[in-house]
Every structure is written in C-alpha cells, then in structure tokens.
Write a structure and sequence with these properties.
Layout: H1 9-15, H2 29-41, E1 52-56, H3 63-67, E2 80-87, H4 93-109, E3 113-117, H5 123-129, E4 136-137, E5 141-145, H6 153-162, H7 170-173, E6 174-175, H8 192-199, E7 210-215, E8 218-224, H9 238-256, E9 261-264, E10 276-284
Parallel strand pairs: 6-7
Antiparallel strand pairs: 1-2, 2-4, 2-5, 3-5, 7-8, 8-10, 9-10
Helix pairs in contact: 1-4, 4-9, 8-9
C-alpha cells in the first residue's frame, strides 16, 4: 500500500475506527488530491474483477450536494464519500472489500475519518451520482471527512449496539488444519501478528464472519455466515465484502513482514464444518 511516510500497515489498521461524527469542514487540497488519485487508481482486484471508485463531493462548494445523498442520519458532517461500482453479475465481492479497505487505510494515514456504509444509505442517490450503468451496482460506500473532537450521540449508540470495541476471541476465529481445533497464538508462528491484524478487520454489524485455518504451508479462508443476516433482495452480500476486507489485512501485513505467498483457489479434500463456505487460500512461498 502506498501509505504516507512512516505509517506501517499494522499501525494504520490499529488507528482506524468507524467514525460517523465529522466536522463538516473541507479536506485540505493537498490531502484531497492524494486521496482522489489513490481512489482512481484502484480498478482491479486480486481476482481480476473490474471495480471503479470515485471520490464524491469532497470540496467545500459541495456541502449542499452532500445533504441530498442520504445516509438516514447515520453520518454527520462528512466532507465526502468514496463510492464504488461493480458488475451486477460479479461473483467476487471480496475484490470490492479488498480494494475499498486499501483506500480506507490510505485515508487513515492522511488523518481522515472513515466509516463503511452497507445498508444505511440511499443507493439510488449514490448510484446516480457516479452515473451507474444498467449492468452495475453500488455494493457499499464509505464516508470520509475530518474527525470531530467527540463522537455524537448517534455514533455512540451505534457503536454500543454493534459492539464495535468487542472482538471475538482468537480461538473462535482461527483454527488448525483439522478445521476444528482452535489455533493457539503461540502455534501460529510467522502468522501470529498477521492474524492479530485480521482480527481487527471491520465487518458489517461487527459480525466478524471470517474463519482462517492454518494448514502447513497454506492458510484457508472460510465464511461462517450469520444466520438470517443475508438479505439478497435489499442488500448485496455484505459478508462476502467482509471476506475481502480481512483478506486485505492478511495480505498487506504479510507483505509488511516479508511473509511471502499469494492467494489461490484450492480443491480441499478435507471435511470442514457444514456452516463454513470456502472462499480462498493463501499459498506460502
């Protein structure tokens, strides 16, 4: 990731939090240019799917336009939004989550506040703002702005309801090669810090649906769905986006620590839990 100087990916991951309370002030021109260029550079995910992103209404003269976009009061004082579009037929929403999280951590390095919005925004308004095509959909957007000194009441309530500060225990997220035995941190070796940063990944409603299994020279990623959470007729598959977010944390921290490898699709012969969906594997060099 092309982060600002002296900002490691691990530090940015730990700095980032969902921030719904912003000052309403415009982003400084130099930071705005850096962010805009970075947003526009993200066009293809690791799976090869095409994604396009735009930074919407981030200048001082755009404040009136922002009011009409519609976030149902969940975001206050944002300077702009990062909006992306993908093909409706895309079978890899992981790429969307992966690339957007890359952008978010870049914005974090610029000192900006961000917040994922998966359902609490007017999709029609945001879609028209980036001239959505008939074959495209906007899966999720991200607000961006200057952080307020204190979170407002709505922000605090949402964080408390979602349990944003609470993370599932290591042993419930990471497993050994049999897909059943919890992985102890001291047994994770070179992946211990990597998985620490995966554990800090944001997810829709803080459900944390990713499950990683360490299998010799491979690490397999699975999705354990939250029962009743998927609403395909209204939202897109947000938990597939969550997978991509965690993949970016895993991938980028591996690179930071010089832990070589690449994502590959495997035909797993082992039996894994029935409520797990296989997503992809990290094949170590």
């Amino acid at each position: 990731m092309e982060s600002p100087p002296s900002q490691s990916v691990s530090n940015l991951i730990q700095l980032r939090s969902s921030w719904r309370s912003c000052t309403g002030q415009a982003i400084a021109a130099d930071k705005l240019k850096l962010l805009d260029n970075y947003v526009n550079s993200k066009t293809e995910g690791i799976g090869g799917d095409k994604v396009r992103f735009e930074l919407v209404a981030a200048r001082a003269e755009d404040s009136e336009e922002l009011r009409g976009l519609g976030t149902y009061g969940f975001i206050r004082g944002a300077s702009g939004f990062i909006v992306g579009a993908v093909d409706k037929q895309i079978d890899n929403l992981e790429d969307y989550g992966y690339l957007m999280e890359d952008i978010i951590l870049f914005a974090t390095g610029l000192g900006l506040a961000t917040c994922w919005l998966g359902g609490s925004f007017r999709k029609d308004n945001f879609s028209s703002r980036i001239n959505i095509q008939p074959h495209e959909i906007v899966p999720a957007v991200v607000s961006v702005g200057l952080p307020a000194d204190n979170r407002n009441v709505i922000d605090r309530i949402i964080r408390n309801v979602a349990g944003s500060k609470n993370r599932k225990e290591w042993e419930t997220l990471f497993f050994e090669s049999d897909f059943q035995t919890p992985l102890k941190r001291e047994s994770a070796g070179k992946y211990a810090q990597v998985l620490d940063m995966v554990r800090l990944s944001p997810s829709a409603s803080n459900k944390q649906p990713w499950r990683y299994a360490l299998d010799e020279n491979q690490v397999h990623l699975f999705l354990q769905r939250t029962p009743g959470y998927r609403k395909p007729n209204f939202f897109c598959d947000l938990q597939r986006i969550d997978m991509g977010i965690s993949m970016y944390h895993f991938d980028s921290v591996c690179k930071e620590l010089n832990v070589g490898g690449q994502w590959t699709n495997q035909k797993l012969s082992s039996t894994f839990p029935k409520n797990w969906e296989y997503i992809i594997s990290w094949d170590a060099d």
